[in-house]
Predict the 3D structure of the following.
Amino acid sequence: MGIFEVMEKRHSVRRYTDKKIDENTKNELLKVIKECNSESGLNIQLCTEEPKAFDSFMAHYGKFNNVKNYIAIVGKKSDDFQEKCGYYGEKVVLKAAELGLNTCWVALTFSKGNTVCKIEKGEKLCCVIALGYGETQGVAHKSKSIEELSKVDGVMPDWFKKGMEAACLAPTAMNQQKFLITLEGNEVRAKALTAFYSKLDLGIVKYHFELGAGKENFKWVK
C-alpha cells in the first residue's frame, strides 16, 4: 500500500474489538517508536492490554469503547514540544495503519492518572493514541480546500500540491484544520492558527506534507 493510500484509508476509530495485537505487529510498532524516540528525544511508549486509561467518565463521554491498547506520547517540555509530539506521533499512527490497526488521537477524553506509561522527571504526557482493531474502519471527514489552507507566491508547483493533498488528509482536533502553509521560492512555512491543540495538529500536518511533497523539494523556514 502506497503512503497516500494509507493516509486516505486511515480514519479515527473509537470503538474496538477484543482481538489482541500479535507479537510481530507489536515488534514492528516498537521498532518505529524506537526510531522516533532516537531521532526526537521523546519518550513515546506502547501500552498494551491495559484498559484503565479509558475506563473513566471522560472516555465514555468521548464515546470510546473497549480501548485496551494505546501509544503514550511523552517527552521533555520545550517550546516545540506539542509540534514534535504531533510529528512523531503521526509517524507511528501511519505505521499502525499500514499494519492494519485502527487509531484515534486523544488529548482530553482519557484518564491521565490511570495511564501505565513512565514519565521521568522533567517530562510530561502530551496525549495518547488509542490503538487496536476497530469495530469499523471509521469515516472520512470533509476537508477544507487546498486554496483555503495554503498561500503560494506564483504558480503552485506539483510537489507543493501533492504536499497539500497529503496535509488535507492529516487528522486535526475536532477536524478544525487550523493551519496555513505558505510557499515562497522553495521555502515553506507552516503556521498554527489560534485554536484548541493547533500546535499538536501542526506537527501532524507537517509530517503529512513532507510525505506528499518530498523533503528533497523544499526547506522548512520559521
Q: What stands out?
A: The first strand starts at residue 45 and ends at 47. The mean pLDDT is 95. The chain is about 35% helix and 20% strand.
